[in-house]
Amino acid sequence: MTGRYRLALLALATAITASGASAQDAAIIAEGRALLEERCSRCHAIDREGNSPHPEAPAFRTLSERYPVSALQESLAEGIVTGHPDMPEFTAEPVQIAAIIAYLESIQSH
After folding, report:
1. What CA–CA distance (Å, rounded) separates 1 from 48?
2. How many structural domains does the chain have?
3. Where is the Cytochrome c domain (predicted)?
4. Full pLDDT tens readout for the chain, 110 residues
5. Looking at residue 39, which CATH number applies to its domain?
6. Nearest to 76 by CA among 103, 107, 48
7. How many other CB atoms sit within 10 Å of the CB of residue 92?
């Protein structure tokens, strides 16, 4: 992990903690966001605001309108694959899955 990456995670975790999350929760949420930034933001809007760069890619803040976000755990473990040619296969380790789910739950627009 580069120093710049750590600094960005620390800044995000600090901001999340200021909004009421515990320091540990904030760190997990920040890690989830960093993973999605790295792997998904090319096509999906990954924050509470903004449009997805790919018009057919859903904004992650609206995922709970379709199904429970926690239902993604199994898909992330087994590998998310779609028929869409632009989306690469995506798999994650259990600790990464927990971070991703925590972040996604923190941004839902419900």
Report:
1. 26
2. 1
3. 27-108
4. 455 655 555 555 555 555 556 778 888 999 999 999 999 999 999 999 999 999 888 999 999 998 899 888 888 888 776 656 677 777 788 999 999 999 999 999 86
5. 1.10.760
6. 103
7. 21
